[in-house]
Amino acid sequence: MAAAAPAQETFPEIRDGVRRLCVGFPGAYWRELDQARAYPKDFVDALTQAGYLAALVPEAYGGAGLSLREAAVILEEVQRAGCNGAACHAQMYTMGTILRHGSDEQKRRYLPEIAGGALRLQAFGVTEPTSGTDTAALRTRARREGDHYVINGQKIWTSRVAHSDLMLLLARTSPPPEGGKRTEGLSVFLVDLRTAGESVTIRPIRTMMNHATAEVFFEDLRVPAENLIGEEGRGFRYILSGMNAERILIAAECIGDAKWFIDRAVAYAGERVVFGRPIGQNQGIQFPIARSYAAMRAAELMVEQAASLYDQGRDCGAEANMAKMLAADASFEAGNVCIQTHGGFGFAEEFDVERKFRETRLYQVAPISTNLILSYIAEHVLGLPRSF
User: Fold this and answer.
1) If you placed Cys at 166, which of 43, 121, 153, 327 could pair as Cys (CB 3.0 to 4.6 Å)?
2) Who's near 34: CB < 8 A, 6+ residues apart?
3) Are 99 and 144 in contact (CB under 8 A)?
């Protein structure tokens, strides 16, 4: 079915390539992984070998050097095919911290191996149990000792850390200055998990979706000073600079999810016969599907605008936030409609609807909750007083 497709698709060659790759990973593949809580290694390897995860790495470092709009199309098509890009999407945007703020040596050392698939950089340690989204209140500390930093602390919701070679870690290296911003004094480190040994403990967290997320503990972890990214104490700025890309790419995934749900709902409504006629002939079935399609298309336009602004190097904070919120809302509602259209079969594992619904539900909360996006719009776009 192509019911949810725009009249004219952008970047058709990229879309076709991703679709052909995803054919090899049908619903049965994901259901088996879901039941076993296993990581989709074969799928991630296939995306890596095809060069899709290196889309945003410049050609000078062995990547494809694509725009964010093109990278967004890759992830959109992954989701629309019924696959799950959350297993590896961080490899696309996490490396941006090294690219934008790392030293020349760090770029030469890591980016070619990340682009080629020899190294996985998929883990991003920011959130902590006691601070949540109040990043300035994090308690993980990094203390300089000679040519190393010694790190102690804890992170939570650190996805893919058990399947990554490297991780970016945000830690406090000094208290915020008197009268200064609370976010001053935070630094970003590139941690090599392969050599961390017993200084890093990973505890998987079982969640409602197979998301490979975990709690991570650091005990006297020694990180070479050369693995500090950028300047000490300016790490929060470096993290922020990558958040717009993250939100736009995840918004694109939500658009792909919404299209998958709408395609499935349309197909089922046309095939399912009750009382002697297809249920899709009833306006009670038609209208919710049509409304979710309209909402998806509107969100899709915002995603495209945000990505276009990002690629032009223009400020896109508001657009990236709105794109993520609207796309997450569209995918969530399309999931609801798809389940309702299928009736009881919407809850059956073999139809994949319930799995995809669980996966897309996450994006009402992560990587930033809808409420925080609304707070951002209220304060930074509408000029209302800060609410927290």
Assistant:
1) 121
2) 210, 355
3) no
